[in-house]
Write a structure and sequence with these properties.
Elements lengths: L12 H33 L5 H27 L26 H6 L5 H12 L4 E5 L5 H9 L8 E5 L5 H4 L4 E5 L6 H10 L4 E4 L7 H10 L4 E7 L3 H12 L5 H11 L2 E7 L5 E12 L5 E5 L2 H6 L1
Parallel strand pairs: 1-5, 1-6, 2-3, 2-4, 4-5
Antiparallel strand pairs: 6-7, 7-8
Helix pairs in contact: 1-2, 8-10, 9-10
Length: about 300
């Protein structure tokens, strides 16, 4: 059989009509859900509760509507790969292993991580430590990153720097500036622009080699800003070596180690188990440099994490 023998099936009139009907129903459902959320929040705001609770309700309104809009959008475009029992945000994204939950609670229930691991990560996020999530392809790095971003208040100022689509957890945030880059972008200028905005967090969904120096240098110079990113590496030592190797193309080895030591990133190792499901393997924290100028890595004790 040759390529000319293969004819793609055409969509007949009945299929087109069915697709239009489904899309119409989905659009009507989204409108009704958003209207219901508006009505529900407005009912509570009409009560004599004071200005501060009303502000919280406004924030809740934005959160719920943004989640509903994002989920419905994903539902329309990934309808065939979804399960009715899990979030549609990442359904079908991990092949045979199936949909992956997109909140820390969901990741705990799916046994992707232990409760104490989630608590430790939440504490690091609260302290504005930079979190670098590493692992092989399709091990749940971006899923964990989105779940961690959901912990943060809606009024935090974010700058997101991405080569492709920005993270779903950031798309509906009012205080998030999204900077898109490509192979021709002046990466240093982009990070300088980002830091001039004085964000509380800077997010790079997947940290590319040419971004490593500027990402870590920006965070070193702005201690009040926390960072989030993912990196492709299969061990903590290879992850650190990758950071150093790329920076050493532009600065000395000693300066590269100093940047990592002063930034003090937390490295989170994600892997796939024997069934292909994502699991958190370990949490490592950089705690500065030792007397010889070498990077000090501290691993959260596995036994302590599992027993907590």
């Amino acid at each position: 059989m040759t390529d000319t023998d293969i004819i793609a099936p055409r969509e007949d009139a009945e299929d087109r009509e069915e697709r239009r009907a489904r899309n119409s129903v989905m659009a009507r459902l989204e409108r009704d859900v958003l209207a219901m959320l508006d009505e529900m929040i407005s009912q509570f705001q009409s009560e004599p509760i004071g200005d501060e609770p009303r502000e919280y309700l406004d924030a809740l309104r934005v959160l719920l509507k943004s989640q509903a809009t994002a989920y419905m959008s994903y539902l329309r475009s990934h309808r065939d790969g979804l399960s009715s029992t899990t979030s549609p945000m990442y359904a079908g994204a991990f092949g045979p292993a199936g949909p992956v939950p997109t909140t820390l609670r969901g990741l705990i229930e799916a046994r992707t991580m232990a409760t104490a691991q989630a608590a430790r990560l939440a504490a690091y996020v609260s302290d504005r430590r930079t979190l670098l999530i590493f692992g092989d392809r399709a091990t749940g790095k971006s899923t964990l990153l989105n779940a961690l971003l959901e912990l943060l208040p809606l009024d935090e100022r974010f700058v997101s720097i991405e080569h492709s689509d920005h993270l779903p957890a950031l798309k509906e945030r009012s205080f998030c500036v999204q900077l898109s880059v490509n192979d021709n972008t002046d990466i240093e200028a982009v990070f300088l622009k980002a830091m001039k905005m004085q964000p509380s967090r800077i997010v790079v969904g997947e940290l590319h080699a040419d971004e490593i120096l500027y990402f870590l240098s920006a965070l070193k110079s702005h201690r009040e800003c926390g960072g989030f990113c993912t990196v492709r590496a299969d061990s903590v030592h290879r992850a650190v070596a990758k950071l150093l190797r790329q920076m050493e193309l532009h600065v000395s080895a000693a300066e590269a180690r100093q940047i990592v030591g002063e930034t003090r990133p937390v490295l989170v190792h994600m892997r796939s188990d024997e069934r292909g499901e994502p699991r958190m393997a370990a949490i490592w924290a950089v705690e500065g440099l030792d007397a010889a100028g070498e990077i000090v890595l501290h691993e959260e004790p596995a036994g302590q994490i599992l027993e907590a």
